[in-house]
C-alpha cells in the first residue's frame, strides 16, 4: 500500500514537467519567448542554406514544417492559456509573434531560393537573431 | 590477422558508440553551456571503458553475460527488480531509436513519418532475422562513421580552441548550476547507458571470446569507446560553436544535422543524416538484442544470434515482441527526442543495478581465476560505482527541477 502511494507520488512528480497547460507566469513567458526566438533563428539559418543552394528539397520541406508546427503550438498555447495578472497583453503579443514565425516557416517549406532571402531577413527580425 | 580483427572491431565501436541519447544530450549541452561540459564526456567515456572492459573480460573467462551474473550474484528478487528496470529503460530507448530512425528517413526522403516508422520496424526485423551478428556490427558501425563529418564541421566552425581546452577542466557553472548538473547527469547517462554493457558482454559470447581474446577486448573498449568519445566532443563543439552563437535550442534531429550542413553544405547535410541513420539504426538493434538477451539470460533460456531463429525460439519471440511494443509506443506520436531525454535519465537511475553485479563477478576469483580485477580496475570500478550511485539519486530530482532541461 505504502509502495503504491510512493509510486503514485512519483508518477505525479514525473508528469508535472510534461504538462504545458497551466497558467502562464513571467518565467514561463520568458522561456516560451526564448523558444520562439530560437525557432525563428533556426528558420533564418535554414533559409540561408536555401539561398546558398546548400540543402535538399525534402530536408527543407520536412524541417521547416517541423519548426512551423512547433511555432504554431506556441501560438495556440499562448493565445488560450490563462496568465498571471499584469502580463496578459505581453503573452498575447508573444502568441501573435509565434503565429507570424509559423507562417514564415510554412512559406520556407517551398524551398524557393528567390523568396528565401526575404524570409531569412524577416525571420531574423522576428527572432532578434545574432 | 589479429591486428586486422582489432582494427575492424575498433572501427565498429567508434561508429557504434553514438546513439540518439548522445546526439541529443551532446548537441543540447553545447548549445546551452558551450564547451563547459566536455569534461563530463571524458568522465562518462572512461566509465564505459572501465565497465565494458570488465564485462567483456567476465564474458571471455567465465562465459557469463551480464544478466547471468545478475541472476547468480544478487539473488532472484533484486535480480528481478534489475531486470524490470532494465527492460523498461531498454524499451523506451528502443522506441526513441526507432522514432529517430523514422525521422532520419523522413528528412532524407520527405515521405510521411508514420509510414516510415513501419519501414524502419520492418527493416530492423529483416536485418535481425537474416544478417549475421558480425555483419550487423560492421554494417552499422562503419555506416556510423559518417558521423565523423561532425569532426570536420567542428573545425570548420572555428571554435575558440582556448575555451574548448578549458571545457576539459572539471568545474561547475555558477550561473545556472541546477541545469548544468542536469546536463552533466544526462551526458553521463548517455555515455554509460546500460544497454551498451548488456550488448557488449552478450556480443563477446556471441563471438566466442576466450582468454585469448582479452587483448581484443581491451583494444575495443579503450580505443573504440575512446575514439567514439571524440565523436561526442565534436557534437558538443558543434553545438557550442554554431547553435549557442545563433541562439538556437536544438530540439530536433534536423537541427542536429544542420550542425554539419551550415559549415559543409549539402554534402555535410547528407553525410550527417546518413551517419545519424546508421547510428540510431545500429543502436535500435543493440537495444533490441539487449532486451532479448536480458530476459533470456535471466530466465535461463537458449539465446544468441549464433543460433538459428528456431534454435532459440523464446529469444526470437522476445525480440519480436519488443519490436512490436516499440512500434506501438512510437505510433502514439510521442516525440522521440523527448522520449530520449526521459530514457537517458531513467537509465541513470538503473545504472547501479547494472554495474554492481559486474563489479562483484569481475572480483570473484572462483569465476575469474587469475583474470579477476587488479588494483587499478578495482579502484576505477569502485570510484565509478560511487559516482553512478550519486548520479542515480540526483537524476529524477534534477529532471523535475529543470522541467526536463527546459529551464
Short description:
The complex is a heterodimer of chains A (130) and B (407). With 130 residues, chain A is mainly α.
Feature tags:
heterodimer, A: 130 residues, mainly alpha, 0% strand, elongated, disordered N terminus, B: 407 residues, 81% helix
Overview of the molecule:
Residues 1-5 and 12-20 of chain A have low confidence and may be disordered. Chain A has helices spanning 2-18, 26-52, 57-80, 88-108, 113-127. Chain A is mostly helical and 130 residues long. Chain A is elongated, with a radius of gyration of 18 Å. Chain A has one domain (39-130). The N and C termini of chain A lie far apart (55 Å). Chain A is 80% helix and 0% strand. By secondary structure, chain B is mostly helical. Chain B is built from 17 helices and no strands. Chain B has helices at residues 2-17, 20-33, 38-62, 66-73, 75-109, 113-130, 133-144, 149-156, 161-167, 177-191, 194-206, 214-246, 253-299, 313-331, 336-362, 365-368, 375-401. In chain B, helix 3 (38-62) packs antiparallel against helix 12. Chain B starts with a helix and ends in a 6-residue tail after the last helix. The model of chain B has no long low-confidence stretch (mean pLDDT 91). The interface between A and B is medium-sized, with 35 and 30 residues.
Amino acid at each position: 500500500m505504502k509502495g503504491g502511494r510512493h509510486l503514485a507520488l512519483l508518477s505525479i512528480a514525473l508528469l508535472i514537467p510534461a504538462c504545458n497547460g497551466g497558467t502562464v507566469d513571467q518565467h514561463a513567458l520568458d522561456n516560451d519567448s526564448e523558444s520562439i526566438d530560437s525557432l525563428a533563428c533556426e528558420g533564418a539559418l535554414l533559409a540561408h542554406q536555401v539561398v546558398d543552394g546548400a540543402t535538399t528539397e525534402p530536408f527543407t520541406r520536412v524541417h521547416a514544417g517541423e519548426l512551423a508546427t512547433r511555432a504554431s503550438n506556441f501560438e495556440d498555447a499562448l493565445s488560450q492559456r490563462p496568465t498571471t495578472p499584469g502580463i496578459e497583453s505581453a503573452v498575447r503579443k508573444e502568441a501573435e509573434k509565434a503565429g507570424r514565425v509559423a507562417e514564415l516557416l510554412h512559406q520556407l517549406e517551398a524551398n524557393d531560393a528567390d523568396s528565401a532571402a526575404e524570409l531569412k531577413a524577416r525571420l531574423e527580425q522576428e527572432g532578434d537573431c545574432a | 590477422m589479429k591486428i586486422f580483427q582489432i582494427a575492424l572491431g575498433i572501427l565498429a565501436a567508434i561508429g557504434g558508440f553514438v546513439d540518439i541519447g548522445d546526439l541529443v544530450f551532446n548537441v543540447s549541452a553545447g548549445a546551452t553551456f558551450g564547451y563547459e561540459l566536455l569534461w563530463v564526456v571524458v568522465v562518462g567515456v572512461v566509465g564505459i571503458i572501465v565497465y565494458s572492459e570488465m564485462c567483456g573480460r567476465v564474458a571471455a573467462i567465465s562465459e557469463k553475460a551480464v544478466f547471468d551474473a545478475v541472476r547468480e550474484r544478487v539473488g532472484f528478487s533484486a535480480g528481478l527488480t534489475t531486470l524490470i528496470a532494465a527492460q523498461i529503460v531498454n524499451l523506451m530507448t528502443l522506441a526513441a531509436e526507432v522514432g529517430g530512425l523514422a525521422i532520419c528517413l523522413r528528412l532524407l526522403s520527405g515521405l510521411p513519418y508514420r509510414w516510415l516508422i513501419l519501414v524502419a520496424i520492418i527493416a530492423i526485423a529483416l536485418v535481425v532475422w537474416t544478417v549475421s551478428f558480425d555483419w550487423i556490427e560492421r554494417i552499422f558501425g562503419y555506416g556510423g562513421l559518417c558521423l565523423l563529418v561532425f569532426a570536420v564541421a567542428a573545425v570548420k566552425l572555428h571554435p575558440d580552441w582556448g575555451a574548448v581546452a578549458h571545457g576539459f577542466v572539471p568545474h561547475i557553472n555558477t550561473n545556472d548550476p541546477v541545469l548544468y548538473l542536469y546536463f552533466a547527469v544526462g551526458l553521463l547517462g548517455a555515455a554509460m547507458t546500460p544497454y551498451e554493457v548488456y550488448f557488449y558482454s552478450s556480443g563477446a559470447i556471441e563471438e566466442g571470446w576466450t582468454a585469448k581474446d582479452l587483448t581484443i577486448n581491451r583494444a575495443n573498449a579503450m580505443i573504440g569507446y575512446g575514439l567514439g568519445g571524440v565523436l561526442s566532443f565534436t557534437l558538443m563543439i558543434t553545438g557550442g560553436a554554431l547553435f549557442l552563437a545563433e541562439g538556437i535550442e536544438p530540439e530536433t534531429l534536423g537541427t542536429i544535422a544542420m550542425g554539419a550542413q551550415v559549415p559543409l553544405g549539402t554534402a555535410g547535410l547528407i553525410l550527417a543524416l546518413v551517419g545519424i541513420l546508421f547510428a540510431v539504426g545500429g543502436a535500435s538493434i543493440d537495444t533490441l538484442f539487449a532486451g532479448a538477451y536480458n530476459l533470456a539470460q535471466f530466465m535461463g533460456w537458449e539465446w544468441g544470434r549464433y543460433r538459428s531463429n528456431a534454435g532459440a525460439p523464446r529469444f526470437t519471440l522476445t525480440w519480436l515482441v519488443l519490436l512490436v511494443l516499440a512500434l506501438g509506443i512510437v505510433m502514439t506520436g510521442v516525440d522521440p527526442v523527448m522520449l530520449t531525454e526521459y530514457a537517458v535519465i531513467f537509465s541513470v537511475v538503473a545504472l547501479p543495478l547494472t554495474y554492481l553485479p559486474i563489479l562483484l563477478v569481475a572480483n570473484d576469483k572462483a569465476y575469474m581465476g587469475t583474470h579477476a580485477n587488479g588494483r587499478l580496475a578495482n579502484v576505477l570500478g569502485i570510484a565509478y560505482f560511487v559516482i553512478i550511485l550519486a548520479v542515480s539519486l540526483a537524476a529524477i530530482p534534477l529532471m523535475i527541477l529543470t522541467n526536463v532541461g527546459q529551464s
